[in-house]
Amino acid sequence: MSGVKLGKTYTIKMASKLSGLSELVIRSWESRYNAVSPERSESNRRLYSENDIGKLMTLKKLTEYGHRIGSIASLSDPELKELLLKSSMRLKKDEEPEKDQESEIFNNILNQCIESIRNYDSHGFEQLLSDSFRQHNYIKLIDKLILPLMKKIGDFWSQGILRISHEHFTSSIVKKFLNNLVNGYNIPESAPHLVVTTPQGQYHEVGALIGSVLASSDGWKITYLGPSLPAEEIAGVVDQINPKAVFLSLVYPFDDTSLIQQLKTLRAYIGNIKPIIVNGNAVENYLEVLAEINALAVADSMQFRNVLNDIRNLSRVS
Questions:
Q1: What is the mean predicted confidence (pLDDT) over 23-38?
Q2: pLDDT per residue over 143-174, tens digit each?
Q3: pLDDT over 70 (residue 92)
Q4: Residue 266 has what pLDDT?
Q5: Residue 88 has what pLDDT?
């Protein structure tokens, strides 16, 4: 995660472990492309800063997206972050759903959910969610049922097929279901802490709750603040409990100029070290400001969990 500074230096062995790159690759990128310029100890051993490791991690992810190291190694940190944001969002758009048996199963469940929603059948809808959770792991449940369902309901509402009351009905039951999942994990007090919310003006909170479920399942302690919280209030919580990171869900609206200032204000209040993770349908519309504040955009559940793991690894060696 480029831009994270913890004021420490690490040997190439530790840099390799944290970045996921082999020592050979690190040396090659350093000598051939000047990707990083580590300091040297008195015994001439390489010493890598948090910035060096963060840049290596960013470069690794970009090469996995298909970018050639020779064409990106000389880019500045802001340029790399913006490229990473765009690449992750593009990957999400380009992915085609698999037409396998499992997809057909989830598509069938989704259609049953929509029928329950159409009839305001809360018991039937809740039973479908509960049965799906017992039969499938939580990541598949979120990626293949809950997220597609929320998108479908939103599309049907905008097309006039369903009423706004159907959207509210769906959200209330899904939020209840996700809250129960979060509360079902027994997280120790010593676990890394994550603050979860949506910025002021962002009232859709299902994405934030999904983030809470994923983080809880990976052993993170969650402080959930609900939707539409001003930057000053988020920063106040961060200052008081000192979490490892902040997760924000950005869903709608897509063109809120006040959100840009809210994000800048949050970064100014909590400083440059604390990671800000963002996800949601509106992320692509705010890429410029997200790159400016060194936010980490995640396109899916797997990326989100990988970023949390990166943060946790950096914290363990700090």
A1: 88
A2: 899 989 998 998 888 788 899 999 999 999 99
A3: no
A4: 97
A5: 74
Would you say residue 72 has pLDDT above 90? yes
Paired sense of beta strands 245-249 and 193-197, if any? parallel
Two tokens at 191?
């676990």
pLDDT at 95 over 80: no
